[in-house]
Amino acid sequence: MVTKKTMPEIVTIKGKKKAKIPVLRKKAVARPYIIREIFTPCCIGHATVPDPGTGKLIIQDFLVDSSGLSKGGESVNPLIQVGLNVSKRMVFSISPEACKTKFKVTKPATVSKGYFSFTFGRSALHWDTGGDGFYDIYPAVVTFNNLAGTAPLITYAYFFITNGNNNAFYVFIEGEFTKSFSFTDILIDCRYPLRSFLPKFDFYKLLSYSIPYTIPAVTDVCYALFGYNSPTNADLGQIVQIV
User: Fold this and answer.
1) How many Cβ atoms sit within 10 Å of the Cβ of residue 230?
2) In this structure, are residues 212 and 176 in contact, taking their beta carbons and an 8 Å threshold?
3) What's the angle, vertex CA 235, arms to CA 157 and CA 60, rounded to 5?
């Protein structure tokens, strides 16, 4: 939680003799509230599926998997209660369970590059009918903390929140890597202007506009994954480890 110090404001009061007397008046500063979702996986999910175009295997490792179909990765709370009007910042973090120290991503030697994709979204149970039916878009800042090795490339990083109401929000991140690397945790920082819309405070369920290739889910899936396409029909194995 970040707090700001209360700073005094000088107000000038004019008396009968027009003497100016500086008076200190405390200026109230609202304590910033950060909406957080924290994921601490204890194991990595692993799933494969043949590419319908080439027949080669698509292989994906999951740090977070709300569907549970990858048999690993952190689960996601299906319902949270939150008020978007009381905050201007949303933070998603992914770190190993307490007994582990970092994530290690190892690119197979026969693979030219891998990719990653993260998406977390929510929609309100009680939708407001106001608004213009589209999303406002803001940058999402992605940080791989304590990075060792060649930094991965972020190709897409945005936060979306419905215009004119608080009906829904989601963040979508994409990137790629050509070398192996490791990091202690991932931080996704999303900031947006102060809002005063309905619903003011509501329960929010999962929302997603993408589904991983390897998960045959029919519901919304929130996830964080690293993947690659095998140059052969063989599963080259899991590329993400928690160490």
Assistant:
1) 20
2) no
3) 20
* Tokens representing residue 117 in the block: 């994709």
Is residue 242's pLDDT more than 90? yes
Q: Which residues contact 40 (CB under 8 A, 6 or more apart)?
A: 74, 94, 95, 96, 97, 98
Is 230 inside any structural domain? yes
Judge whether 187 lies within some domain. yes
For residue 46, give its domain range: 33-242
When divided into structural domains, the chain yields a total of 1
- 166 inside domain: yes
Asked, as a colleague might, if the bond just before 22 is cis with ω within 30 of 0, I would say no
pTM of structure: 0.85
Query: 113-149: b or e for each residue (b if 16 or more CB lie within 10 Å)?
Result: ebbbbbbbbbbbeebbeebeeebbeeebebebeeeeb
Say how far apart CA 102 and CA 96 lie, in whole Å.
Answer: 6
Residue 82 contacts residue 27 (beta carbons within 8 Å): no
Measured distance CA(94)–CA(61) in Å, rounded: 14
DSSP code for 84: G
Collect all residues with Cβ–Cβ distance below 8 Å to 118 and sequence separation of at least 6: 64, 92, 94, 142, 171, 172, 173, 186, 188, 223, 224, 225
Among 45-59, 61-75, 201-215, name the one with the lowest average pLDDT.
Answer: 45-59
Answer whether residue 6 is part of any domain.
Answer: no
Give the amino acid at 57: L
pLDDT in tens, 96-121: 998 999 999 999 999 999 999 999 99
